[in-house]
Amino acid sequence: MIRIGIILGSTRPGRNGEQVAHWVLEHASRRTDAAFELVDLLDYPLPHLDEPMPPTYGQYQNEHTKAWSAKIGSYDGFVMVTPEYNHSTSGVLKNAIDYLFAEWNHKAFGIVSYGSVGGARAAEHLRLIGGELKLAAVRTNVALSLFTDFQDFSKLAAGERQVAALTTMLDEVVAWSRALAPLRQAA
């Protein structure tokens, strides 16, 4: 069974991302073609990158890095839920990504972004970062606008159009995760 981690990429108090991630998990959990699990960065309090060796060596010294490595290494693909802060993804998500290398390789990922323009710029930055880590970004991006997909900028009210986009994105993540399995096995 393909395993997909839904990474909640915000730790900010009062974060909109928590309800977005639970919305993704609620819809994903209805599927039978993969197992989905929420990965909340609040549960993995990683300090600013503090490993002495680059992650490409995989020689982790800190227990928090080893725990993060084991968690990310257990998945075949990901959905990254990201806010847009200052035209990019959150610092906490970027830091968590930067901790590892091989654990990300040859896996697919989709993006659910949110912000004033749907988090589009954060999603594009994640695509660039993913490419360097041998992550395959799927085409479909769920972009939730604070103006049209939230009530009072704080309560998620995604419509059927967004549910359809989410379904397509999940289809792509599962298919690509399955297709990339031979590369993961060879590595």
TrEMBL record:
InterPro entries: Flavoprotein-like_sf, FMN_Rdtase-like_dom, NAD(P)H-dep_reductase. SUPFAM superfamilies: Flavoproteins. Pfam families: FMN_red. It comes from the Bacteria. GO terms for molecular function: FMN binding; oxidoreductase activity. Transmembrane segments: none annotated. GO terms for cellular component: cytosol. Residues 3-146 form the NADPH-dependent FMN reductase-like domain. This is NADPH-dependent oxidoreductase. It comes from Nonomuraea terrae. The lineage of its organism: Bacteria, Bacillati, Actinomycetota, Actinomycetes, Streptosporangiales.
